[in-house]
Amino acid sequence: MEVQLKKWQPDDKTALAAIGSGVDRSFLSDRLPDPYTEAAAESWLRYVAERDGKTGVFRAIVADGKIVGTISVEQREDIYRKDAEIGYFLVTAQWSRGIMTEAVRQVCRIAFAELDLVRITGLVYADNAASRRVLEKNGFVQEGCRKNAIVKNGILHDECVYGKQKQTEA
């Protein structure tokens, strides 16, 4: 299986709406529209077009020629401007195939090359073992845990903070 990251294009709105509607939302932000309509996809794609390569890296995850997920690294601002936050999701049918591990590897390489960063931060629900493993396989180190930092469906969850430092050439 080949995993590629591709820049989002305006004509990807139907595919984006489909993956946004077909994702397990258990560990995602509530800001993700539900249902994920083509109008919501168009709005996201406009946001991406304005920021890609400037303050973030936003990519479609393609496996075996089909868009199956999305991944981004968004640079923070002000005194945190050398840091960026990684975020991603994959349609449930594609889980446990190594797709996200490879996508994270690729997007980190792109983000460190294109953006003025020294680190990338991953914020993960403590009970999301799969996402934690993806980050750890890519050299992210758990830096702490914030107790009761997330509320999802009326339930409090702990949040793990992971960091990956940019590697500098000696």
What does this structure look like?
It is built from four helices and seven strands. By secondary structure, the protein is α+β, with helices and mostly antiparallel strands. α1 (13-21) packs across α2 (38-51). The radius of gyration is 16 Å and the shape is globular. The model has no long low-confidence stretch (mean pLDDT 95).
Largest sheet: 7 strands, mixed
The SSE order reads: EHHEEEHEHEE
| Helix vs. strand class | alpha+beta
SS strand fraction = 35-45%
Quickly count the helices. Answer: 4
Helix content: 25-40%
What strand order characterises the main sheet? 1-2-3-4-5-7-6
Q: Tell me the total number of β-strands.
A: 7
Summed up:
The protein is an alpha+beta fold.
What attributes characterize this protein structure?
single chain, 170 residues, alpha+beta, 7-stranded mixed sheet, 4 helices, 7 strands, globular, GNAT family N-acetyltransferase, N-acetyltransferase, Acyl_CoA_acyltransferase, transferase
Secondary structure blueprint with pairings:
Layout (H helix, E strand, L loop, with lengths): L2 E5 L5 H9 L16 H14 L4 E8 L2 E10 L7 E8 L8 H16 L4 E7 L3 H9 L3 E12 L2 E11 L5
Parallel strand pairs: 4-5
Antiparallel strand pairs: 1-2, 2-3, 3-4, 5-7, 6-7
Helix pairs in contact: 1-2
GO molecular function, one term: acyltransferase activity, transferring groups other than amino-acyl groups
Keywords: Acyltransferase, Transferase
Protein name: GNAT family N-acetyltransferase
